[in-house]
Amino acid sequence: MAPYLGYARKDRRTQSRDPLTTRYVARMFEDAGTDRVVTVDVHNLAAFRNAFSCQTENLETRGTFVRHYVRRVGEHEVSVYLPDVGG
């Protein structure tokens, strides 16, 4: 299991001749003999799946997170702050 997949956000070219680092990381996993990768809340699911030749599975935590906090917050107002607009 890879709960943190390094370079997962480097899934597209932002400048000419930029490497697609996600694919390089996937290749390292596969060269090491990995036949299945499980990760948690990957940044770009399509790019993640396309980078790997082996089986992939992404576990999403949004539902678990919401259920956890709804029980604790109840009817109170909640504010969520993110570090950037894309969050």
Please give a structural write-up.
This protein is α+β, with helices and mostly antiparallel strands. It has a single domain (1-87), classed as Rossmann fold (3-Layer(aba) Sandwich). Helix content is 34%, strand content 11%. The protein has three helices and two strands. It has a two-stranded parallel sheet. Strand 1 (36-40), helix 2 (45-51) and strand 2 (55-59) form a beta-alpha-beta unit. Helix 1 (21-31) packs across helix 2 (45-51). It starts with 20 loop residues before the first helix and ends in a 14-residue tail after the last helix. The model has no long low-confidence stretch (mean pLDDT 80).
Provide a quick synopsis of the model.
The chain has 87 residues and is α+β, with helices and mostly antiparallel strands. 34% of the residues lie in helices and 11% in strands.
From the structure above, extract its key features:
87 residues; Rossmann fold; alpha+beta; 3 helices
